[in-house]
Write a structure and sequence with these properties.
Layout (H helix, E strand, L loop, with lengths): L11 E3 L4 E3 L2 E2 H5 L5 H10 L5 H14 L6 H12 L4 H10 L8 H14 L7 H14 L18 H12 L4 H17 L7 H11 L4 H25 L3 H11 L9 H7 L1
Antiparallel strand pairs: 1-2, 2-3
């Protein structure tokens, strides 16, 4: 007989009579009794969050749900413009660009902080460890994840609120504290003061809730899905995708064979 012991899951199962999620009956124990954020936490962590953990987890989701007409939103809207029968395709298009510039910063920040903590960056040693890590990244020309924002040059308004929620929840926050040490170390080493961005703060907060860096980007995608659905609902009522495409098509300058010598002179 074949060994099927590997074929298992602890997430959920369905029978003709019931649906079970993480050992709880979906209809009688979860529906109407837990929030969607609590369910998302339960699914990934395997346990229900405390009230404080729920607040911090949820605050991170809210922080990343929407940020205006970002590239991910434009990708979703333009995809729907060309395929109005495929809402799922438009949402997927918006999520596919979650990388090292947008949204993926949550994971990059969590990984960066985890490496510093593994190098002894806890407690009194945090400053030294942060300085070493920052200097190493600067030396090879890499950006420090979690710092800087193209719009919020002085302070990302989401960041102090995430720190405040963490404090109000009474949760230990070694990653969030270390992120502040990283920001200070970068300012000292580079002479430039960059704000901690909301994505970096959310990644640090979720790491403080015990989630490994590899899964943290998933929560950013979960949050941004809500924003994309909202934008697509608006696109259906007040479309801008077709006009955006036509504006770009109209304004774009076609240069056969690449840029002209005049273009190169102007850019130098």
């Amino acid at each position: 007989m074949a060994d099927d012991s590997w074929l298992r899951t602890g997430i959920g199962r369905s029978t003709p009579e019931a649906i079970t999620v993480r050992g709880r009956d979906l209809a009688t124990e979860l529906m109407g009794k837990v929030t969607f954020s609590e369910l998302a936490f339960l699914l990934s962590a395997g346990r229900m969050p405390s009230p404080g953990e729920t607040r911090l987890f949820d605050a991170g989701l809210v922080a990343l749900a929407d940020h205006g007409l970002t590239p991910s939103v434009l990708a979703a809207r333009l995809t729907w413009t060309g395929a109005t029968e495929s809402l799922q395709g438009a949402v997927a298009a918006g999520l596919l660009g979650a990388g090292n510039v947008f949204l993926g910063v949550v994971e990059d920040t969590a990984r960066f902080l985890a490496a510093i903590l593994a190098d002894g960056g806890a407690g009194a040693d945090a400053t030294d460890a942060a300085e070493r890590a920052v200097q190493a990244e600067i030396a090879v020309g890499r950006r420090i994840p979690g710092l800087g924002h193209p719009t919020h040059k002085l302070e990302d308004p989401r960041t102090p609120r995430l720190y405040a929620v963490a404090a109000e929840a009474g949760i230990a926050t070694p990653h969030l504290r270390l992120l502040r040490a990283v920001a200070a170390a970068h300012a000292a080493a580079s002479g430039k003061t960059l704000p901690i961005n909301g994505a970096g703060a959310a990644g640090a907060a979720w790491a403080d809730l015990g989630f490994p860096p590899a899964i943290i980007r998933g929560f950013a995608l979960l949050a941004r899905t809500a924003g994309l659905v909202g934008h697509l609902a608006e696109e259906m009522e007040h479309p801008i995708g077709r006009r955006l495409w036509q504006e770009v098509e109209h304004r774009a300058v076609y240069t056969a064979g690449g840029p002209s010598p005049d273009d190169e002179a102007r850019s130098s």
